[in-house]
Amino acid sequence: MTRIYAIAAAAVIGLLSIGIWVFTTSASGDRFAQCRASAVAGGAGQIGGPFTLVDETGATVTQEDVIDQPALIYFGYTYCPDICPYDAARNAEAVSILDDRGYSVKPVFITIDPERDTPEQLADFTDYLHPRMVGLTGTPEQIAAASKAYRTYYRKQPTEVGDEDYYLVDHSTFSYLTLPDEGFVEYFRRDIEAEDMADTIACFLDAR
Length: 208
Hints:
Elements: H1 2-28, E1 52-54, E2 60-62, H2 63-66, E3 71-76, H3 83-101, E4 106-111, H4 119-129, E5 134-136, H5 140-149, E6 154-156, E7 169-171, E8 175-179, E9 183-188, H6 194-207
Parallel strand pairs: 3-4, 4-5
Antiparallel strand pairs: 1-2, 3-8, 6-7, 8-9
Helix pairs in contact: 3-6
GO molecular function, one term: metal ion binding
Binding site for Cu cation: 80, 84, 171
Keywords: Copper, Disulfide bond, Metal-binding
């Protein structure tokens, strides 16, 4: 009898927990709550914002030009020996999976190495990964402003005399899902697989 009571109590607690979660989700007015796998201190509005950069054709663009459809944004650099190519390729794979499912998401690669990443260099890099991936560069000040808006980190490593052109850049490795009417809605860590990323992005797109 005691075991039956315990099972019944557990069931009631479970139902109450679900009820509290549903109520909280509804009360918060966040229609994306069921899709979110991360949390941002102060809310999603703390990430993202205006930027002015230069695209692969040399044209000046703003966030309105870039985020004219759902976009997956990554900050990296083309001379990165391992992390950036892997992350950018993973993002491209997730976008291709979404393409097959009937969703259109723009993959965006913003360099944090404007000294070496010219529009032409970015075009070669992004065209190899995905035909719709957009590469963005700019002045050091423009890159810094975009990085600050998305709360990313990067720092050029010191080099030996005579090797000034051969340097690494430490940087954060998040990917950011942004929507035209919402701005930033979710970030992805680098350990997420392309299929799981695509599933989460699809959830956000269906909930719009």
